[in-house]
Design brief:
The structure holds 2 protein chains of 2 kinds. Chain A is of the alpha+beta class. Helix content of chain A is about 35%, strand content about 25%. Chain A is globular. Chain B is an alpha+beta fold. Chain B has one domain: TusA-like domain (Translation Initiation Factor IF3, 2-Layer Sandwich). Helix content of chain B is about 35%, strand content about 35%. Chain B contains 2 helices and 4 strands; from the N terminus they run E-H-E-H-E-E. Chain B has a 4-stranded mixed β-sheet, covered by helices on one side. Chain B is globular. Classes of the chains: A alpha+beta, B alpha+beta. At the A-B interface, helix 3 of A face helix 2 of B.
């Protein structure tokens, strides 16, 4: 049903990659993606900025450069003030400007619940597409944002998240993956994905399975946002986290005896960071360049030949 | 024993209502929270235990109930 026989379709829906890639010339391909989210903060401008950073992320994760975007607005007929809608789209537009992306149009439709997102088009050289399934054994794994946006967002909804934790989470969610992606391309990354709804464990598992290898991750090296432990203690855990755990826990082998210790790794992320696989010496160069450019990057593990489980957590 | 029905509510609403109901209880009183998802059951158990109250979950009539004893 989802197979389209076209030699120019370089990345289609079958491989569950971050975005589709379609070649339009020998040296140019389109990178196409869309992402729509429900409000996770009260401030409409901030929500719009997060939604835009989130939608653009898939293009960066493919090694592409986003160029145009279209607004997608789902809105109840009444109950949402016009000023709030304007502020959401202003937040989105501001983030597009920061990314050097042009808004070219959009569409709105009546819906029961407010949602906002964008359809984004980027460009990439067909030989420079960074897929999620092309890591190599021996690669080092680097993550470019800490985890926890799903848990902190749940805390925001319950009005129980600490103000400082909320501010930190919002800062990460509005941070573009542009710089990390640029440096990853300069360093010749083998594979990349952005961490979104399936959480770190879900996306790492998919990357490992796609490559036919095993990802070995060190729990103690994984960066987690402030306030996450409190959210878990209080039961402010999003349903998506439990669904990710139910689906992916059977596919991993963990040394940790503490189940709670792994929960942040299942947390669904909005506008999460990039998980990048680089050869040993390229990883060293990447970590040096990110440090020099004030771009967050933490090594969290490495890639090994295929074992019984696609994911090992030590 | 006081009972609140959180069936049909999505996360984090069951936790919010449980915490509000617990505030109206005296020490030693019990609260029953009706839930219909594993997410709500786990989260209500966690929030009660984070307050150092005893909490147990059981299946009942095709749904689930969490019983919390306030200390």
């Amino acid at each position: 049903m989802f197979e389209f026989d076209d030699p120019n379709l370089l990345v289609g829906p079958q491989t569950s990659d971050d975005a589709g890639v379609y070649r339009i010339a020998d040296d140019c391909a389109l990178v196409e993606t869309t992402d729509i989210i429900t409000p996770l903060v009260d401030d409409p401008f901030l929500f719009g900025s997060i939604a835009a950073a989130n939608a653009l992320s898939d293009v960066y994760a493919m090694g592409g450069r986003p160029v145009t975007a279209m607004n997608l607005v789902f809105c109840p007929a009444c109950g949402v003030p016009l000023e709030a809608l304007r502020a959401i789209m202003a937040g989105g537009a501001a983030k597009l400007r920061e990314a050097g992306v042009c808004l070219v149009g959009g569409h709105s439709i009546e819906d029961d619940e407010l949602k906002y997102g964008l359809a984004v088009t980027g460009l990439v050289h067909p030989q420079q597409v960074v897929r999620n399934s092309t890591a190599k054994a021996g690669d080092r794994l680097i993550l470019t944002k800490p985890l926890g946006t799903g848990l902190i967002s749940t805390g925001i909804k319950a009005d129980m998240a600490d103000a400082q934790a909320v501010e930190e989470a919002c800062r990460w969610m509005t941070t573009l993956n542009a710089l990390a992606a640029k440096l990853m391309l300069e360093c010749g990354a083998h594979a990349c994905t952005d961490i979104t709804g399936f959480g770190l464990i879900g996306h790492a598992t998919e990357m490992a399975r796609g490559a036919g290898l095993t990802y070995a991750i060190k729990r103690s090296s994984i960066p987690v946002m402030a306030g996450v432990a409190e959210m878990i203690d209080c039961g402010l855990i999003p349903g998506g986290l439990y669904r990710n755990r139910d689906h992916y826990a059977p596919m991993l082998k963990a040394d940790s005896q503490l189940e709670d210790d792994l929960l942040p790794l299942f947390d669904p992320q909005t506008s999460g960071g990039l998980l990048i696989a680089l050869a040993d010496e390229d990883a060293t160069a990447f970590l040096q360049r990110t440090a020099a450019s004030d771009c967050f990057a933490v090594e969290i593990g490495h890639v090994v030949p295929k074992e019984a489980y696609p994911l090992l957590i030590r | 024993m006081k009972t609140i029905d959180t069936t049909g509510l999505s996360c984090p609403e069951p936790v919010i209502r449980t915490r509000a109901a617990l505030q109206t209880l005296a020490a030693g009183e019990q609260l029953q929270v009706l839930v219909d998802t594993v997410t709500a059951r786990e989260n209500v158990l966690r929030t009660a235990r984070s307050l150092k109250y005893d909490a147990v979950a059981a299946d009942r009539d095709g749904g689930m109930v969490v019983t919390i004893t306030k200390k």
